[in-house]
Design a protein that fits this description.
Helix 6 (about 85-95) packs across helix 7. The protein has 2 domains: about 1-45; about 50-123, Orthogonal Bundle (Arc Repressor Mutant, subunit A). The chain has 7 helices and no strands. With about 120 residues, the chain is an all-alpha fold. About 5% of the residues are buried. It has helices at about 5-25, 25-30, 35-45, 50-65, 70-80, 85-95, 95-115.
Length: about 120
């Protein structure tokens, strides 16, 4: 085992413990997430460089979202973080399904353009 493997294992354990703590505190989240699913992913695919780049992208997306109006931010959060369907979002926010789809398209386009300007690859 080299130094990178030790660091990767350490960081995987830290991530696992953070996830355990979140699941213990938030029962609603525990119903959505399964720790076993994430353990396999963390153990098998853990790369510190990829993790750092992913954190940078997440921070960039958060910054972009902070600059958006509340309705757009809510649509994005409901769709991507709460994994709600377009129909559900339209009911929750009281807007049409086509409006939700249009806003999602524009949000994705804005995020993509900002990530590309920031030098990130968009996948």
């Amino acid at each position: 085992m080299n130094e990178n493997d030790n660091l990767n294992n350490y960081l995987a354990a830290v991530c696992k413990n953070i996830l355990y703590n979140k699941l213990r505190k938030d029962k609603k989240l525990a119903k959505i997430l399964s720790i076993e699913d994430y353990q396999a992913i963390l153990k098998d695919n853990f790369n510190t460089e990829d993790l750092y780049e992913e954190k940078e992208k997440i921070d960039a997306v958060k910054k972009i979202l902070e600059g958006m109006d509340e309705k757009s931010r809510n649509i994005f959060m409901l769709f991507y973080y709460e994994q709600r369907k377009v129909e559900e979002i339209s009911i929750i926010l009281g807007i049409t399904k086509s409006n939700v789809k249009t806003k999602l398209h524009r949000i994705r386009k804005k995020i993509k353009n900002n990530l590309l300007k920031g030098g990130y690859r968009y996948e």
